């Protein structure tokens, strides 16, 4: 996710284009005494409420401002079902110590008090909404390379959740947060410490807060769908070790995962299951990228190593709310075509999906603030499509 207003492509997207053009030359989890001592925390009543069959997910710039302007949590319209607070960020890349605070008044003159913010969280939950802390973003690189960092992550994220009475966690690790070590070639049995420790940390948090704890993820296409072609540095080395690096995390946590909304933007061309490259900004891109998640795909082309399909209820499409929010903005008519194709089998264009999934969960956007800046176009189109 973009924290600042700059619209230039990020270095990761440039790397993706290079790799996609042809760059070629946990299950065993740790348990520490600190983790074993964690006991389930009392969960807010809101955690027992299920999210709607079709949900609208958005990120709220809660800790910073940019060109979109500040939006108070209480002012977020009722259409938004999951609100991800952006962002919790680490004190250093490898510390695992995550901090979150409301935007300073000097940067956000309209910011609410902490008491008002907590009251707004409770009000949203009373209305059946989920409010989560999102960790990472463009600026918040997180590498849990040690068990000490893992344990600090669990403690600090739990402290944020408890302080504000939140429903769960969104993982928005970008940049160099996840990278596969040389020789780590099996997504079902990861060996890279930063990945194994992240899986362990999230499982610990899930166990602490219970089955109502919500877990969402917002990886970039580079870390997921690119895994169809390339996985890590490859069997002979030389590839970008970040390629497909989210796959072991998603797979290990699939039984705990509420929703995966891959960022179908700020992306280079990605090969779909039709072995053709697809380009962001059109219905075709969202159809091809989502079809991969709902069908499953062989990792690095290995038919004996298939990433299994996710449940339709676990999948949403991630899009920018406006042209200002990120590269790859998709016009509302194209978004409707993508939804029609994936859920009804119509408006598919030249791409043939491997099924129809009327139970696909919905849409995610970066961000609520940018949608407000654009006159709530994204939200209104979602409401129109799903008859809200």
Relative helix content: 25-40%
- What is the overall pLDDT average? 90
Q: How many beta-strand runs?
A: 13
Unreliable stretches, pLDDT < 50, 5 or more residues? 4-40, 42-46
Tell me what the structure shows:
This protein has 388 residues and is α/β, with parallel strands linked by helices. 28% of the residues lie in helices and 14% in strands. The chain has ten helices and 13 strands. The strands form three sheets. Strands 1, 2, 3, 4, 5, 6, 7, 12 and 13 form a nine-stranded mixed β-sheet that branches. The chain has a two-stranded antiparallel sheet with strand order 8-9. Strands 10-11 form a two-stranded antiparallel ribbon. α4 (147-164) packs parallel to α5 (193-209).
Concise description?
By secondary structure, the chain is of the alpha/beta class.
């Amino acid at each position: 996710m973009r924290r600042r207003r700059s619209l230039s492509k990020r270095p990761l997207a440039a790397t993706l284009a290079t790799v996609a053009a042809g760059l070629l030359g946990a299950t065993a989890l740790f348990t520490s005494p600190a983790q074993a001592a964690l006991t389930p925390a009392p969960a807010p009543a809101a955690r027992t409420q299920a999210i709607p069959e079709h949900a609208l997910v958005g990120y709220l710039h809660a800790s910073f401002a940019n060109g979109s302007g500040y939006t108070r949590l209480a002012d977020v319209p009722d259409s938004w079902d999951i609100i991800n607070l952006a962002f919790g960020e680490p004190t250093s890349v490898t510390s695992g110590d995550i901090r979150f605070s409301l935007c300073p008044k000097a940067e956000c003159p309209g910011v609410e008090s902490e008491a008002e913010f907590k009251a707004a969280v409770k009000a949203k939950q009373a209305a059946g909404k989920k409010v989560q802390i999102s960790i990472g973003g463009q600026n918040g690189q997180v590498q849990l390379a040690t068990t000490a960092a893992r344990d600090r992550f669990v403690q600090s994220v739990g402290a944020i959740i408890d302080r504000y009475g939140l429903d769960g966690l969104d993982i928005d690790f970008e940049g160099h947060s996840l990278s596969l070590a040389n020789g780590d070639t099996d997504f079902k049995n990861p060996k890279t410490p930063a990945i194994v420790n992240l899986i362990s940390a999230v499982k610990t948090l899930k166990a602490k807060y219970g089955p109502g704890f919500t877990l969402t993820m917002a990886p970039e296409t580079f870390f997921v769908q690119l895994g169809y072609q390339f996985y890590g540095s490859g069997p002979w080395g030389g590839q970008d070790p970040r390629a497909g690096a989210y796959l072991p995390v998603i797979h290990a946590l699939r039984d705990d995962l509420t929703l995966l909304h891959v960022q179908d933007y700020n992306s280079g061309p990605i090969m779909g299951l039709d072995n053709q490259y697809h380009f962001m900004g059109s219905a075709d891109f969202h159809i091809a990228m989502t079809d991969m998640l709902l069908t499953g795909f062989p990792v690095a082309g290995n038919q004996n190593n298939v990433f299994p399909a996710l449940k339709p209820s676990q999948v949403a499409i991630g899009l920018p709310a406006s042209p200002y929010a990120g590269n790859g903005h998709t016009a509302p008519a194209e978004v409707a075509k993508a939804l029609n194709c994936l859920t009804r089998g119509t408006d598919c264009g030249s791409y043939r999906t491997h099924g129809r999934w009327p139970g696909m969960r919905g849409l995610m956007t970066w961000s609520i603030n940018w949608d407000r800046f654009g006159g709530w176009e994204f939200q209104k189109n979602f409401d129109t499509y799903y008859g809200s």
